[in-house]
Amino acid sequence: MKYFSVIQLKKFPMVCHVPHSSTIIPGKYRPDFLIGKKELEQEAKKLADLYTRELYRPLLREFGGVVFGVSRIVVDPERFENDSKEEMAKVGMGVLYTKTESGRLLRRIEARRREEYLNKIYRPYQLALSRSVKGCLRKFGRCLIIDCHSFPARPRRYERDKTAQRPDICLGTDKFHTPGRLVVALSKAFRAAGFSVKVNQPFRGAMVPLDFYRRDKRVRSILVEVNRALYMDEKRFSKQRGFARISRTVSRIVSAACHDYLQKTK
């Protein structure tokens, strides 16, 4: 079974990354979990950036990218492989989750089983993302990664930022890889469209494959997070009527700002 999909690079030096949209738990890994089937499925929905593959579909069609196809509670492709480097491992949400959203025990993983998860799912995905970025560098000499996410309207127990008043849009940055000019452009464009915007609040950082992380300035990255209240009912896990409009608007703003940034930094 292939646990991710790669959408071919298009005509621009950009790669979209959608890591948390899936709720799929492969059957071979279900026995590892200590909670019941229905509760497990609910947990996968609660922790997923639900519908983000659809939300960012216009950008994926325009630029291509890599989409993770497994629930993050099975493997989280954005975490560091080594738990000693991953701050979320402290709350049982490292690369392999061992705690639920509420802090209950989710599973126990022996060393051999951990290696299986990493070898079968995590490392192949990281390799695919790295290859997409390398292909972009070969073709264009540079690469801009759009890290595509959503976030819950209310803070979760395990989240660092407990601020109740959350923005519509969060832009996450990395001091080495994120161009300040792009952050300013996106912030202005989203606000002009009527969205409230925060930078690195409630979430920070931006995905960069380890092959390039803090090493290669040709690889740029920015995190785009959309408040789920804008496009879905979080209690029912269902899309709202305005979903298509939000998708078009967010994608249009991101596309225009990134095109402008790339034109001005040739």
Describe the structure.
This protein starts with a strand and ends with a helix. The protein is an alpha/beta fold. The strands form 2 sheets. The protein has a 7-stranded mixed sheet with strand order 1-3-2-4-7-5-6, with helices on both faces. The protein is 33% helix and 16% strand. This is N-formylglutamate amidohydrolase. It holds the Pfam family FGase. It comes from Candidatus Falkowbacteria bacterium RIFOXYC2_FULL_48_21.
List keywords for this structure.
seven-stranded mixed sheet; single chain; globular; two-stranded antiparallel ribbon; 6 helices; 266 residues; alpha/beta
CATH class: Alpha Beta
**Structural class from helices and strands?**
alpha/beta
Strand order of the largest sheet: 1-3-2-4-7-5-6
Helix/strand order, N-terminal first: EEHHHEHEEHEEEEH
Distance from N terminus to C terminus (CA atoms, Å) equals 40 Å
Task: Tell me the CATH superfamily.
Answer: Zn-dependent exopeptidases
Total number of distinct structural domains: 1
Known CATH architecture? 3-Layer(aba) Sandwich
InterPro entries: N-FG_amidohydro (IPR007709)
Organism: Candidatus Falkowbacteria bacterium RIFOXYC2_FULL_48_21
Pfam families: FGase
Protein name: N-formylglutamate amidohydrolase
